[in-house]
Design goal:
Blueprint lengths: L18 H4 L5 E3 L7 H12 L3 E2 L3 E2 L6 H10 L7 E5 L5 E8 L6 H6 L6 E9 L8 H15 L4 E7 L5 H6 L3 E2 L4 H15 L12 E7 L2
Parallel strand pairs: 6-7
Antiparallel strand pairs: 1-4, 2-3, 4-5, 5-6, 7-9, 8-9
Length: 217
């Protein structure tokens, strides 16, 4: 699942430009993820998730804290090398992306999307508000593609909440929608409404999640 989106994965990268952000030195990508960056990563995720409401009531940012996040990476330390943190000139984290491959997911992550053989899944990607529209989202996608190829993946995938303007970024980057059955789409719609409410409007006829893929072969 995207964050933004990036959803678990999970990938809320806006498409507009911010003049003040463009005047700043471009953030660098830092990898692998280290425990020192855990608090900053959780803060980035919470900024995005708190705009969503589990059961249309509870801010989703309350669902995972430091202990749960650390335990997830303790159980699957290989996830650290599949993550990157965007760090600004002041040393502060301004963006985060996490991928997973077969064997790297916990039970709850597999409920959103079960990664298959040869697949690298962008389960979470988010950028802080003041750094959106600067090209950082595209840079993180490029890093994901490079890392996926290094790991021998044949396809790069992500899930995006319908109505999220970041979907245009993914399409420009070469992602295409993966066909899904009406039944799968209905389940997606129900799960999304329960977990995230209606983040892009109560009248959005396309509510649900679109799985997208980009072949790497």
């Amino acid at each position: 699942m995207e964050m933004g989106g990036g959803g678990g994965g999970g990938v809320p990268v806006a498409t507009g430009s911010s003049p003040s952000a463009l005047d700043e030195p471009h953030p660098r990508l830092e990898t692998p993820l280290t425990s020192e960056r855990f608090p900053a990563v959780i803060a980035i995720q919470k900024q995005f998730l708190n705009s969503k409401r589990c059961l249309c009531l509870i801010p989703c940012g309350m669902c995972e804290g430091m202990d749960e996040f650390a335990e997830r990476h303790r159980q699957h330390p290989e996830r650290l090398g599949m993550a990157a943190v965007a760090v600004g000139a002041d040393g502060q984290a301004v963006g985060f992306v996490q991928m997973s491959m077969v064997g790297m997911q916990s039970f709850d992550e597999r409920l959103f999307h079960k990664v298959g053989p040869g697949e690298a899944y962008i389960e979470s990607m988010a950028v802080l508000d003041g750094n959106r529209g600067t090209g950082l989202g595209k840079e993180m996608l490029s890093w994901c593609e490079k890392r996926a190829r290094e790991q021998g993946a044949a396809v790069l995938t992500l899930g995006v909440i319908n109505g999220n303007p970041a979907q245009r970024l993914y399409e420009r980057f070469g992602f295409v929608a993966t066909p899904r059955s009406p039944c799968a789409q209905m389940v997606s719609c129900c799960c999304l409404t329960v977990l995230f409410g209606r983040p892009y409007g109560c009248c959005d006829a396309a509510v649900g999640v679109t799985l997208m893929h980009k072949p790497l072969a």
